[in-house]
Design brief:
The strands form two sheets. Strands 1-4-2-3 form a four-stranded mixed beta sheet, with no helix packed on it. It folds into two domains: 76 residues, Conserved hypothetical protein from pyrococcus furiosus pfu- 392566-001, ParB domain (Alpha-Beta Complex), CATH 3.90.1530; 129 residues, no CATH class. It has eight helices and six strands, in the order E-H-H-E-E-H-E-H-E-E-H-H-H-H. It is α+β, with helices and mostly antiparallel strands. The longest helix is centred in the C-terminal third of the chain and has 16 residues. Strand 2 and strand 3 form a beta hairpin. The protein starts with 6 loop residues before the first strand and ends with a helix.
Length: 223
């Protein structure tokens, strides 16, 4: 979903509700200077609000600028999505619905996922096809069932068939070596190198040559 696809309108600035996530994530001086310059050059404020709850979904820097300018009413975009939080903000019923619609299969690698509380490579997660960091929203059309491995490896990249093919080849190397458990802090069970650091190498190289990853695994992991 792109910004131009959203319904446009206006809202009184005082009616916009700000969640703790935004209040504790104040925009940097550099970002504020950039937004002021853009506004002076005629760029529209990009404030995105949930029309039902009136919570700010995105655009806290623009909201802060509007307050600074003492604007009473501001133009905005409306989307039925939840704002960012410090924790996963996808409601459990939506999460379950996404799993069921995708038949508990990862949309990237096709492996069956299982709902569990550990960090198995096939643990069930919900992925934003277009990441929040790239302008995506937590709306049903942007959510897919994804295994922990593929979700973590994809990171803030938007989905593409080529990227999916690369991730599948990358994951296959781990499966062939019997590496099945990762942790959020980055340690692979039986391994010696942080998963996060190793995955960065994948994101930098994006190679389809499985022999390359097999060699790296042998060099970096006790498998």
């Amino acid at each position: 979903m792109n910004l131009e696809d959203l319904k446009q309108g206006s809202i009184k600035l005082k009616d916009i509700k700000i969640t703790p996530f935004f209040k504790q994530s104040a925009p940097s001086v550099k970002k504020m200077e950039k937004r002021r310059e853009e506004y002076q050059n005629g760029k529209k404020l990009r404030i995105i609000v949930n029309p039902e709850t009136k919570k700010l979904v995105k655009g806290y820097t623009y909201y802060t600028l509007a307050k600074e300018l003492n604007l009473k009413t501001v133009p905005c975009y409306f989307v039925n999505a939840e704002p960012k939080t410090f924790k996963d903000n996808i409601p459990e019923d939506i999460r379950q619905s996404v799993y069921e619609e995708d038949n508990y299969k990862c949309y990237i690698c096709g492996d069956k996922v299982s709902v569990r509380n550990d960090y198995h490579i096939n643990a069930a997660t919900v992925d934003h096809v277009k990441p929040l960091a790239n302008g995506g929203f937590s709306v049903k059309s942007n959510l897919r069932c994804c295994c922990y491995f593929c979700n973590h490896t994809k990171g803030n990249s938007s989905y593409s068939p080529i990227l999916a093919e690369e991730i599948r080849a990358y994951k296959q190397c781990f499966k062939e070596k019997g590496i099945t458990m990762v942790t959020r802090k980055g340690r692979i069970k039986y391994g010696i190198e942080p998963f996060e650091e190793f995955t960065k190498k994948f994101r930098q190289n994006h190679l389809l040559d499985e022999s390359y990853w097999q060699k790296l695994l042998e060099e970096n992991f006790n498998v």
